[in-house]
Amino acid sequence: MTNSQKEVVHTQIDDVREALDRGKVKRVRRLLKTMHPAKVASLLEGLSGDQRISVWHLVDAQDEEKVLAHLPQRLRLQLTRDPDANAAEDGEGAEPVGAESEAESQLRLVLEALANGKLKRITRLFRKLHPARIAGLLESLPAAERGTAWDMVDGDRSGKVLRHLHEEVRRRLAAEMDLEDLVDAARALEPDDLVDLIQDLPKATGRQILNAMNARERERLESMLSYPEDSAGGLMNLDQIAVRASIRIGTLLRYLRLLEELPPNTDKFFVVDRKRHYQGILRAGRVLTARPEMTVAELMETDFEPVPAEQGSAEVARRFEDQDLISAPVIDAKGKLLGRITIDDVVDVIREQAEHSMMGMAGLDEETDMFAPVLASSRRRAVWLGINLITAFLAAWVIGLFEGTLQQVVALAVLMPIVASMGGIAGSQTLTLVIRGLATGQLASGNTRILLLKEAGIGLLNGLLWAVVVAALAILWFGNWAIGGIIAAAILLNLLCAALAGVVIPLIMRRFGIDPALAGGVVLTTVTDVVGFFAFLGLATLVLL
Question: Where are the transmembrane segments (predicted)?
Answer without folding.
Answer: 382-402, 408-435, 456-479, 485-509, 521-544
